[in-house]
């Protein structure tokens, strides 16, 4: 039986979070009715950013809408994006005192992180020869952000404390980016800011954020074995290798043809891996060496780069992404929210009431 730690420990040194956003959270918490479960607020925020992502995707499926002047995305969409991002960030920072609440919050964060980044790419626009970023750069940026998120929870697996990188609060930056785009227009991203650098270049640095505080590992290690300490990193590294091989060796240049679909798949895959690590670090259990979907992914990648898929590569990507997304949702709903962990902890995910023991 899993034994979950009931003590949550996290360190956030981001000045924007500490001096600006936290006072706002404290005021919001005071006006939220006490009968509303924190997990319900967190989930509501996630649904808002998910809806916003699909809205932007409708107007900008291939990341080219902002590459023209004026842009093809209506102004109200950017303003709505700023509103939903702020609401999601505010609602996501309502604290739950239960282990299930912590798992639910960080589990959604692991998925929301990629959604935030993928939505932001629509602001930057795809490279059109003059402005924008290439789809390969998008892939690298997304991978760095996700791996940064992964490292924070890997560090907690080894230390017991979650040291939040500054990039963890990425949505704070995106709120300003959406407001700027909505009020000035996409043209602001197409003009050099200083010394030939664009605003996008500055935001990318903020997007990547500060690396995890590896210095904390020196004195607070929970695992004496180097193998045990590095075990949670094996699957994420293999995942990144497989995905990169597919991107580089794809005969049909799959990332260029279906950037939004491929990057969505990357975000879902990393989220599922990170969720497993979060469960392990909370329950003090050993993570699996190889994540289950690494095997079907390896088969798909081999079939793609060897030419076996031929003209079916895009279709296979679509099917694989749909199945992976469904599996991830199933894991969250049936295993975490309404299934094994909820029953084990005797807590309803969206209610303040405990389960009635049968």
Automatic annotation (TrEMBL):
It is found in: Endoplasmic reticulum membrane. Pathway: Lipid metabolism; Phospholipid metabolism; phosphatidylethanolamine biosynthesis; phosphatidylethanolamine from ethanolamine: step 3/3. GO terms for cellular component: endoplasmic reticulum membrane; Golgi apparatus. Its main location: endoplasmic reticulum. It is an enzyme of class 2 (transferase). Its cofactor is Mg(2+); Mn(2+). It comes from the Eukaryota. The chain crosses the membrane at residues 31-55, 75-91, 103-121, 133-149, 161-180, 192-209, 230-249, 261-279, 291-309. Keywords: Acetylation, Endoplasmic reticulum, Lipid biosynthesis, Lipid metabolism, Magnesium, Manganese, Membrane, Metal-binding, Phospholipid biosynthesis, Phospholipid metabolism, Transferase, Transmembrane, Transmembrane helix. It is a multi-pass membrane protein. GO terms for molecular function: ethanolaminephosphotransferase activity; metal ion binding. Its EC number is 2.7.8.1. GO terms for biological process: phosphatidylethanolamine biosynthetic process. It catalyses: CDP-ethanolamine + a 1,2-diacyl-sn-glycerol = a 1,2-diacyl-sn-glycero-3-phosphoethanolamine + CMP + H(+); 1-O-alkyl-2-acyl-sn-glycerol + CDP-ethanolamine = a 1-O-alkyl-2-acyl-sn-glycero-3-phosphoethanolamine + CMP + H(+). Belongs to the CDP-alcohol phosphatidyltransferase class-I family. Ethanolaminephosphotransferase that catalyzes the transfer of phosphoethanolamine (PE) from CDP-ethanolamine to lipid acceptors, the final step in the synthesis of PE via the 'Kennedy' pathway. PE is the second most abundant phospholipid of membranes in mammals and is involved in various membrane-related cellular processes. The enzyme is critical for the synthesis of several PE species and also catalyzes the synthesis of plasmanyl-PE, a lipid required for proper myelination and neurodevelopment, from 1-alkyl-2-acylglycerol. This is Ethanolaminephosphotransferase 1. It comes from Cyanistes caeruleus.
